[in-house]
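Budget justification aside, the reviewers requested a transparent look at the raw inputs and outputs of the sequence design task funded under Objective 1. We therefore reproduce one unedited record. The lines immediately below are the structure tokens for a 202-residue chain.
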């Protein structure tokens, strides 16, 4: 069991530290609160815990359906693109006036998870192989998997949030504005990529 938990922690950390929409929004939200990452990880769990449970009980094939993947790609990609545009539009107010983004960190965690088609597809395919390894341990195994994976999200997003909140005051406003421009393009780029990838599946 402990070797399996170690494997889970390794796979989970390699996934959570990879740059993506979740990280971009976590950085932006951390300007206002050092607890933004923690709240985002809680929002992320609202989506991920039921998803892993569904896969555990054999519903992975639902997320492998091409129609489901297309719908998720277009809806999710469109929402992430919209959030990227909003971040670009509000960049000056966030940096110079301390304005927050129009959605909470908790909601952002839910949105970045539920509307990320590749996050859902990963759990339905490669992630399901990890889930299957816990079947022999029953309900206890499922709880251990959920806890081990979520701790990685919690630690990483909380660390990023604390570091950004404590350090951004020492960085020049001009650099911060350019950082927000980069993150907004990064976020919008992911949205476009998700949409195009979904359409190509047809």
């Amino acid at each position: 069991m402990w070797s399996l938990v170690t494997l889970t922690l390794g796979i989970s950390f390699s996934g959570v530290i990879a740059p993506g929409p979740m990280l971009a929004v976590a950085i932006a939200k951390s300007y206002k609160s050092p607890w933004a990452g923690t709240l985002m990880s809680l929002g992320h769990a609202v989506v991920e815990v039921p998803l892993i449970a569904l896969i555990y009980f054999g519903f992975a094939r639902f997320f492998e359906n091409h129609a489901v993947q297309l719908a998720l790609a277009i809806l999710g990609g469109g929402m992430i693109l919209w959030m990227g545009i909003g971040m670009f539009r509000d960049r000056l107010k966030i940096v110079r006036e301390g304005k927050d983004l129009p959605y909470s960190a908790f909601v952002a965690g839910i949105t970045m998870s539920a509307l990320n088609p590749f996050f859902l597809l990963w759990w339905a395919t490669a992630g399901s192989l990890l889930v299957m390894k816990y079947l022999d341990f029953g309900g206890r195994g499922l709880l251990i998997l959920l806890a081990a994976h979520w701790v990685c999200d919690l630690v990483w997003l909380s660390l990023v949030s604390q570091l950004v909140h404590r350090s951004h005051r020492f960085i020049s406003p001009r650099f911060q504005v350019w950082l927000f421009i980069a993150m907004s393009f990064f976020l919008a780029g992911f949205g476009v990529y998700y949409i195009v990838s979904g359409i190509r599946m047809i």
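The chain has a mean pLDDT of 83. The first helix runs from residue 2 to 16. Computational costs for records of this kind are itemized in the attached budget.
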